[in-house]
Write a structure and sequence with these properties.
This protein is of the alpha/beta class and about 325 residues long. Helices cover about 45% and strands about 15% of the residues.
């Protein structure tokens, strides 16, 4: 089955040529899976691209959405941008998914207005895969700063379907990020959400999860509002970098420490890879009609390769169809 992904290679921290290297690697690696890529770049950037295989083409747009741009002006002042073109290719059926390392808010706005949300989804959510003790999906990570109990229930359903179909987790455990494990803990938003999640038979809800339990495989899907989720995500990423630097400093402190570092190098390298966000490459916007993956703004070739791989798996798993079917079934049951 052919799967075409529109890949916006503009707007990230690294040049388009760097991201194109990752895209080309993915195109070659997954050619047998029917993967085809449309690289979307400015005319100037298109001239800097490496030699492209047969399953990679290029489309150009004059504008670029910068990281500093206000997301609210994208559809008004940046209609000719590469980001908007990538979303339009998906809307028109030319592409099956979108990957971009550009402005998160702008991508969310453009995708929501152009590709649109699944029927029954009041708000799409940004779900990030966190590679700690065992990988889990954290959502919302910042697409919406506030939420309602019903919206958190929606996030839980979408996250569970994504974990099962993309991460390969059977009967994923869903938890609510909270300041205690007791059912009454937290703000009214979280105590009410707890009641809804507990009553939802389609979910394997395991209760509240405190921050200290997050790194130790407490759940497969961790649900919260976007304000809380973004802080949690940035704290996890920051602590990961801090620990990596601390371990490096320890093994460079003395001659004996350097020898110990050499003896444990294989193990520390394996740990570093396990904790590296680049292994997943980006975060999906769950609730949209087509797969949209927000790659890290600092993506290099390897990280961008991983983001495209995640988009391919998203398409192959039929995740959106399953979310659509699940929400439609729930709507029918409610009407009955």
């Amino acid at each position: 089955m052919k799967i075409t992904i529109a890949v916006d290679i503009m707007g990230g921290d690294n040049p388009a040529s760097e991201l194109a290297l990752g895209a080309v690697s993915a195109a070659r690696m997954f050619a047998a899976d029917g993967l085809e890529l449309i690289l979307v770049a400015t005319p100037e950037a298109a001239k800097t691209l490496p030699e492209l295989p047969a399953n990679v083409s290029v489309r150009t747009a004059e504008g670029v959405v910068e990281m500093t741009d206000d997301p609210g002006i994208v559809m008004k002042d940046k209609k000719d941008s590469t980001l908007v073109l990538a979303c339009n290719l998906c809307k028109e059926g030319i592409a099956d998914a979108v990957v971009s390392a550009g402005n998160t808010g702008a991508l969310f706005t453009a995708a929501s207005l152009i590709i649109r949300r699944i029927k029954g989804v009041r708000r799409a959510a940004l779900g990030s895969v966190i590679p700690l003790e065992s990988p889990f999906v954290l959502l919302d990570c910042g697409a919406n700063l506030d939420a309602t109990p019903e919206v958190l229930l929606l996030y839980a359903k979408m996250g569970a379907i994504y974990a099962e179909n993309v991460l390969g987790v059977e009967n994923p455990r869903v938890a609510l990020l909270n300041n205690g494990t007791e059912s009454h803990k937290g703000t009214p938003l979280y105590s009410e959400a707890y009641k809804l999640l507990s009553a939802e038979e389609s979910l394997n809800f395991v209760g509240n999860c405190e921050g200290k339990a997050v790194p130790f495989g407490a759940c497969d899907v961790l649900v919260c509002d976007g304000f809380t989720g973004n802080i949690a995500l940035k704290l996890i990423e920051g602590m990961g970098k801090f620990m990596s630097k601390s371990i490096k400093d320890i093994f460079h402190a003395t001659t004996v420490a350097k020898a110990a570092g050499a003896m444990t190098f294989r193990h520390t390298k394996k740990l570093k890879k396990k904790l590296d966000p680049a292994e997943y490459g980006g975060a999906p916007f769950l609730g949209l009609k087509k797969p949209v993956i927000k790659a890290h703004g600092s993506s290099d070739a390897h990280s961008f390769f991983s983001a495209i791989k995640q988009a391919l798996m998203y398409c192959q798993g039929g995740t959106i169809e399953k979310i659509t079917e699940g929400l439609a079934k729930k709507t029918e049951e409610t009407e009955e």
